Amino acid sequence: MFSWNVVSLVLLTSIANLVGGLIVVRKEWSPKALTYLMAFSAGFLLSIGILDLMPEGLENSPENGIYILIGFLVLFAFQRILTTHFHFGYETHEDKLSKKTGGLGAFIGMTIHSFFDGVSIVAGFEVSSELGFLVFVAVLLHKIPDGLTISSIVLVVFNDRKKAFIASAVLALATIFGGALVWLLSDTEFAAEVLGDSFARIALSFSAGVFLYVAATDLLPVVNQSENRKTGLYVLLGVAVFYIASWIIGVVGLE
Fold this sequence. Notes:
It is a single chain. The chain contains 9 helices and no strands. By secondary structure, the protein is an all-alpha fold. It has one domain. It is globular. Mean pLDDT is about 80; it is low at about 85-100.
């Protein structure tokens, strides 16, 4: 059932994505700061992929593990077969910070994740107002870090603040689109087939594989190549931020 209250909550989570993007694009970042941002993103993406997307995708469907592998291998093939040498983005004296395919992979994975954020919020309200609100709060808690993560990756890949902010805006729109699609199709047989639980878990599993590939092959090498030992601490910071958000959700009973 349509409700302006539900629409407002979905829009609020989308705005949180934009806030994360603004945190990145409103400040001049040095190469060192960008390296720290990429290290933070690596920790956060690894945490989302291993501790969030993988368990959700495999819950009651262990056979979905194949889709994690497919997500990983699709990006690997795209990077190895469809592209040759990379020399893009913001670079340091050690090496380039990122690659366009890595940024694209993170963008695709996080867009899919954001789409299902919108799906979960509206679907929760379809069950009950209480469940819908709890799902909304759980989603809201990670929206700003999501916007910050994708904007920092795109900023490094393209060295373009406008594109970095647009990336966070696309995540916001994906959330809105996911919610709108559930509302529009909630009373149709097509919705049960396309937006069913198995489809969502397959998409989450695929996203987990994409996240793991980007973090392990594009972002963590930046940390390993850096001579600054502090860089590794920012990977741990990214993991810590994810754990703190998860802890808050658990403490207040939002899981």
